[in-house]
Design a protein that fits this description.
Helices cover about 35% and strands about 25% of the residues. Helix 1 (about 20-30) packs parallel to helix 6 (about 185-195), helix 1 crosses helix 13 and helix 2 packs across helix 16 (about 480-495). The chain is globular and about 70 Å long. It has about 500 residues and is of the alpha+beta class. The strands form 4 sheets. Strands 4, 5, 6, 14, 15, 16, 17, 18, 19 and 20 form a 10-stranded mixed sheet that branches. It catalyses: (S)-malate + a quinone = a quinol + oxaloacetate. GO terms for molecular function: (S)-2-hydroxyglutarate dehydrogenase activity; L-malate dehydrogenase (quinone) activity. This is Probable malate:quinone oxidoreductase.
């Protein structure tokens, strides 16, 4: 931490997760003289949604997540979201490689590993869907190298556990991308904050909670009310630009900021749980992220997957997540979070979204009332020979899905991330969940473009951004040769399979 505490920093970042870390790195690289205060109410960085145990998915690149490629009423596959996410993840890898090459972070093997990404389905209807999805994605260079099979023997070679004990003649199918990754965003976030804390003009405050935020008479500055949770001391810094990246806590702060652009936004919290394998022999036999199809009414974060991860240097195997409902907006939040978020300007959209999402409500009730045996049955759909003694229940993170005004329905539940900014660009807020962390680089570039438009257009910033992300300003999907070169480079720097 810098010796001089800034009471009027240029920038305030709220929340010490992957989003604030990424934005902080960008801003310090683009404006070396900038002063930044970062406030986190917990005692460590990346302890909420960015933490490996809390994150519903790691290394989202749309290779295997079927909810990113919905089947349309005419039977065709909508690939637009998958292509966008895959392109965004490539930008993330380029940025991480830049940080490693510059020596800003070290030991990439501690936060990113190669792991095949698979989709797996059963039943004639689902097999037909997966084949259509595969065919649709083959049109795009980003998905070249994807393999498809309906051969049980090949699937057993790719992921033995999902085929062991599978009886009957029910058709099965799978796709595989060998260049998939597993990313521990907790480790990555903490690595970035280690560097940021060493920089002149940057102060990181743990156990400090932002209790208030409002426009200052010193416009366009913002006045914040900060409470030191250890001492009870309160400070009131001013800032020219504020970014709220506090996960589920962002909605309350958006409401306190009281900007017109934030009216009508609400939040619907969804909690989660994992089954974590405790049998080393079972863990050793699986080496892939295998995603299936979500149940009717399930939110995207609840897409079931049997998932190999590296956490704290140890190979882990998780299944889930099992969805649940809590009125908390954060894992370490309050049960009053949801009721306190309801205001006159968002109660209409929230009620309307609830009415139009009755299947989701029914699904969550079923999930909350699941017994140990019910969870085992869900696991056995993916691992037929699973035994309950090999698995234990682990609490996952808390997500808050965005509710926003909708002209047709009155209110709409969004399953993604939403950036909201004031008209003058002095405040930006990030709401929502999946794909979140994996696309943090692209999301933060969007924030910078919205809030620093003049600088963003300058040749100096464009040159710096191309140093950080060599493909910046170009579509990798439309330039296969550049895509190939970028993948080879990032794979070499990060130690990944290409």
């Amino acid at each position: 931490m810098s010796a001089i505490i800034q009471n009027e920093p240029d920038v305030v970042l709220i929340g010490a997760g992957i989003m604030s870390a990424t934005l902080g790195m960008f801003l310090k690289e683009l404006m070396p003289e900038i002063t930044i205060n970062i406030y986190e109410r917990l005692d460590v960085a990346a302890a909420e949604s960015s933490d490996a145990w809390n994150n519903a998915g790691t290394g989202h690149s749309a290779f295997c997540e079927l909810n990113y490629t919905p089947e349309l009423p005419d039977g065709s596959i909508d690939t637009s979201k998958a292509v966008k996410i895959a392109e965004s993840f490539e930008a993330s890898k380029q940025f991480w490689a830049h940080l490693v090459e510059r020596g800003l972070i070290s030991n990439p093997e501690e936060f990113v590993k190669s792991i095949p990404h698979m989709s797996f389905v059963w039943g004639a209807e689902n097999v037909a869907y997966l084949k259509k999805r595969y065919d649709a994605l083959q049109k795009f260079p980003l998905f070249q190298g994807m393999e498809y099979t309906e051969d049980p023997a090949v699937i057993a070679e790719w992921a033995p556990l999902i085929m062991e004990g599978r009886e009957g003649n029910e058709p099965v199918a799978a796709t595989r991308m060998k260049i998939g990754t597993d990313v521990n965003f907790g480790e990555l976030t903490r690595d970035m904050f280690v560097w940021l804390e060493k920089q002149e003009g940057i102060n990181l405050f743990f156990e400090h909670e932002v209790k208030g935020i409002r426009r200052s008479a010193k416009a366009p500055k913002w006045k914040l009310k900060i409470k030191d949770l250890q001492t009870g001391e309160k400070t009131r810094p001013y800032a020219k630009f504020v970014f709220i990246g506090a996960g589920g806590g962002s909605l309350h702060l958006l409401e306190k900021a009281n900007i017109p652009e934030g009216e009508g936004f609400g939040g619907f919290p969804v909690s989660g749980q994992w089954l974590k394998c405790n049998n080393p022999e079972v863990i050793a036999k699986h080496n892939a992220k295998v995603y299936g199809k979500a149940s009717v009414g399930a939110p995207p974060m609840s897409v079931p997957h049997i998932d190999t991860r590296m956490i704290n240097g140890k190979k882990e195997l998780l299944f889930g997540p099992y969805a649940g409902f809590s009125t908390k907006f954060l894992k370490n939040g309050s049960y009053f979070d949801l009721p306190l978020s309801i205001q006159f300007n968002n109660i209409g959209p929230m009620l309307s979204a609830g009415f139009h999402n009755i299947p989701l409500t029914k699904y969550l009730i079923e999930q909350v009332t699941q017994s140990r045996e019910d969870r085992l049955e869900a696991l056995k759909e993916y691992l037929p020979e699973a035994k309950m003694e090999d698995w234990e229940l682990e609490t996952a993170g808390q997500r808050v899905q965005v509710i926003k005004k909708d002209e047709k329905e009155g209110g709409k539940l969004e399953f993604g991330t939403e950036v909201i900014n004031s008209a003058d660009g002095s405040l930006a807020v990030l709401l929502g969940a999946s794909p979140g962390a994996s696309t943090a680089v692209s999301i933060m570039l969007d924030v910078i473009e919205r809030c620093f438009p003049e600088q963003m257009q300058s040749a100096e910033w464009q040159d710096k951004l191309r140093e950080m992300i060599p493909s910046h300003g170009q579509s990798l999907n439309e330039n296969p040769q550049i895509l190939k070169a970028m993948r080879e480079h990032t794979s070499e720097v990060l130690g990944l399979v290409n």
